[in-house]
Structure formats: structure tokens, C-alpha cells
Amino acid sequence: MEGLKELYNYREMLSNLVKKDLRTRYKGSVLGFLWTFVNPLLQLIVYTMVFSVIMRAGIDKYYIYLFVALVPWIFFATSITTSASSIIRNKDLIKKIYFPRLIIPMSVVNGAFMNMIFTMVVVFAALIFSEIGISKYVLLLPIILILEYLFALGLSFIVSALNVYFRDLEHILGIVTMAWMYGTPILYGIDMVPENLQSLFNLNPMTPIILAIRDILYYKKMPDLSHMGLILMWSIGFIIIGYFIFQKLQKGFVEEL
């Protein structure tokens, strides 16, 4: 509780770091913050052209099927890969003043999460334009996204702390996230996975998250309760484990940096 109280007391610093990240992301570009909406829109146009005209995947409106799963994945992958080097990037700040070090990876994940929320505007517009539409189950989407946020945050605590001691980790993560994406049913459906391997795929924490989001947005149905349970388990487990690992490893940050 003391740790949570301390984070609350430094909430303004966290907010300023997130704002700084959002401001500098497209600094100097002509469109500026509008790239938050233009970039996913251009991606959607490319997916539509490729998978509707050139590569027919055999799934109705496959570009939407892919897009609704890719957006939460991009948030997750960006959070993990960017937060890995976050402590090292802010080493001068860490050496000069005291503040809860957790704020640094939190600011990275919060910025990526806000970017995903803005991108959801394009997702909803695509759902309506494609005539798939939006169902009442969309009310469950914020719950899934918050749980994904907690899972990403917990893992970000771990990789950001470990990377201080093992600098190669941030480079390894690029390969790991690429392999992780192909091991998650984003480009394909879980029904395409051989039955004897499905239990292995279900051990992937991102599998129930992607399936639940796709159920809500693409299939317009209630997510499987077993998936909801797995998401809750992974999210709570990783946020607790990540917090304690970070708190233990942060004691040696100044010496290592």
C-alpha cells in the first residue's frame, strides 16, 4: 500500500512523462498528432487491398479479422520492446533526483495504451464501414483492454529491470516478440491450430486476450468465460510478480548505470 501511495503522490510526474512521450513521438512532422489516426487508417487500407484483392484468406472480411487483433498486439509489443530500454534512456534523471523508478516503464506502457485507445476510433469506424457493426458485447472491451494493460505493465517491469543488468535483452526481445506474434492467433484462427497443439497455444497469455477481443469486435458475441478467467489470472499474476522483481532489482540501478 505504501508503494501505491507513493506512486499516487508522483502521479503528476507520470502524467508529464506520458505527455512528453506523446508530444515527441511525431515532433517535427507535418501532421503531428494526427498520425495517431492516419497510421492505422493507412494500415487498414493496405490490409484491405492485399487480403481482398491479391491474397484471399478464405475468411470473410479478413482485413477486419486481422485488424481487430493486430491493434492490441501492437500495443503489447510496443510496450515490451520500448520499456526494455526505458531505465537506461533515463539514467541521468535516475542519478539526479529521487522518484519511484516504476514510473519510467509505467509512462511507456501508459503512452502506448493511450495510442491504442485513439486507434480504436479507427477500428470502430472500420467495423461500421465494413457493415460488421458493433454489438452490445463491446461494453466488455474496456475490461479486456485494462487486463491486457496490467499484463503488459507487469512484463514491462520485468524486462526494464533485467535490461539494466543484461543489456542484450532489448535486442533479443525484438526476435522474441516476432516469434510470439506468430505463436498467437492473430494472422490465423485458433481453429487452424492442430488439436494436439491447442493446449500449448492456450499457455500463451496473449492467446485468450486476442480471442476475447476478436469475439467482441469481429464475431459480436460473448467471449468464452474460460478465456476471461485466463486473462484475469495472467494479468494479476504478472503485475504482482513484475512489481516485486522490479522493486528488488532497482536497488542496484544507480551502480549499474
The CA-CA distance between the termini, in Å, is: 28 Å
Bin the helical content. Answer: over 70%
What can be said about the biggest beta sheet?
none
Q: How many separate domains make up the residues? A: 1
Work out the number of β strands: 0
Shape: globular
Helix count, DSSP H or I runs of 4 or more residues: 13
- Structural class, judged by helices and strands? mainly alpha
Strand content: under 5%
Mean pLDDT: 84
Radius of gyration: 19 Å
Would you identify the regions where 5 or more consecutive residues have pLDDT less than 50?
none
**SSE succession:** HHHHHHHHHHHHH
Subcellular location: Cell inner membrane; Cell membrane
GO biological process, one term: lipopolysaccharide transport
Keywords: Cell inner membrane, Cell membrane, Membrane, Transmembrane, Transmembrane helix, Transport
Protein name: Transport permease protein
What would your notes on this structure say?
The chain is mainly alpha-helical and 257 residues long. It has one domain (2-256). Helices cover 74% and strands 0% of the residues.
Brief descriptors of the model:
257 residues, mainly alpha, transport, transmembrane, ABC-type transporter activity
What would you say about this model in short?
The protein is mainly alpha-helical. It contains 13 helices and no strands.
Topology, please?
Elements: H1 2-9, H2 11-25, H3 35-54, H4 62-84, H5 86-89, H6 91-96, H7 103-129, H8 141-165, H9 169-182, H10 195-201, H11 206-217, H12 225-249, H13 253-256
Helix pairs in contact: 2-7, 3-4, 3-7, 4-7, 4-8, 4-9, 4-11, 7-8, 8-11, 8-12, 11-12
